[in-house]
Amino acid sequence: MLYLISLSGFTSSIANRSMDPLVSSIAAEFGLPLATAALVITFFALPYSVGQPVLGPLGDYYGKGRVLRACLWVLTISLVFVAWSPNFEVLVAARFVGGIASGGLMPVALAMIADRYPPEIRQQAISRSVAALQTGFLMAASLSGLLAVVFNWRGIFLLALALAASNALLVTIFVHEPPAPKKHIRLSHIVDGYRPIFRNARAWVCFAGVFVEGLVLNGCYPYIAPLLTERGLGGPREAGFIITGVGLGALVFTFMVRTLLTIMPRYRLMTAGGALALAGPLALAFPLTWPWLAAAFTLTGFGYMMVHNSIQVEVSEVAPQSRASAFAMHSCSLFVGTALGPIYFAAGMGAFGASSLLMANAAVMACLGPTISLLLSRLPANPNPSPAVEQPGQA
């Protein structure tokens, strides 16, 4: 069951991150300015984020597997329109719908995993799901840039369509839920689910941390290809390889997390992660060739996951009775930052230049891990006791 749930994260990652190296290709095909073409990132990330505060409570109320299944089928339909979009307007609309659906996948999947594994092994279990997510990241970044050069930018979305349809079918067949409540969910139910989350100061620290991650790190990805082109150092293909480095570093972390946790506790892991996460943005501030940038962003991916995976485990205990809601708000915060990232990056480049902005972003990433770990270590322990945990593998 863990592998089937993790496949949803893989599907979400392919649908989400495939567009990052393709902004310049989109602009060229539809004859658009780069800033306008970059809206395909914003119009996926924004609905991805704002839909989650509703989808999370729906999972808590009607059943997480039921919501997971519905989101997968809607994502499948949206990818049909992305792959065959005749104009930019259809592309953006399809990405918008797909963003809403994809937004329900990872929070619900993480909540299902947290329900099935006790706290002492939960970080390792979550990291396995994140491994699937990062494998999707690797494929999305590398294949999308490569296919854009060899064939067309639409190729990666045909692959994403086949994957989403297969995942939806498997979840429909194998993930079973108890009967849904006869009463429909009300706004009061959603509010009641979020009340213990927002009363917990630890939640605010976690949500603020992932918002900053999305803003300063994810926001720079769409501009890697244009920066390489401007410097005469490459284009979408090279940008895909560089972004692949982030996924590779994160994937390596998932295989090392158990060993790392025996060496250092979670808060020290976060502090050390911040020191590594600065490498990519800092290297991109200089006119380095793509292999050096890929190596730097691999360090960033490793460091980023040292911080981010630790935050995910903290979120799992913020409000155990409303886990899907807590993970939905966590993911919402991340993707609000991601949605605003390209806008922030474009404005910052215009005001300060790309190099200065990237160095500032590197400094922010370096400070993020130590700051979050310091704040969490000084806050009271989670006041909400964890409920009984389902046995791993239970449907």
Sequence of secondary-structure elements: HHHHHHHHHHHHHHHHHHH
Let me know the average pLDDT: 84
- How many DSSP helices? 19
How many separate structural domains? 1
Structural classification:
mainly alpha
- Give the uncertain stretches in residue-range form: 385-395
DSSP strand tally: 0
Round the Cα radius of gyration to an integer and report it: 20 Å
Structure description:
Helix content is 80%, strand content 0%. With 395 residues, the chain is mostly helical. The protein has one domain (2-174, 192-378): Growth Hormone, Chain: A, CATH 1.20.1250. Helix 1 (2-17) runs parallel beside helix 9, helix 5 packs across helix 11 and helix 12 (201-216) packs parallel to helix 18 (323-352). The protein is globular.
What is shown here, in short?
The chain is mostly helical and 395 residues long. The protein contains 19 helices and no strands.
Keywords summarizing the entry:
single chain, 395 residues, mainly alpha, 19 helices, 0% strand
Write the layout of secondary structure elements.
Blueprint (H helix, E strand, L loop, with lengths): L1 H16 L5 H8 L3 H4 L1 H12 L1 H11 L1 H20 L4 H16 L1 H12 L2 H32 L4 H20 L12 H13 L1 H16 L7 H8 L4 H28 L2 H12 L1 H6 L5 H27 L6 H30 L1 H25 L17
Helix pairs in contact: 1-7, 1-8, 1-9, 1-10, 4-7, 4-18, 5-6, 5-11, 5-18, 6-7, 6-8, 6-10, 8-9, 8-18, 9-14, 9-17, 12-17, 12-18, 12-19, 13-14, 14-17, 15-17, 15-19, 18-19
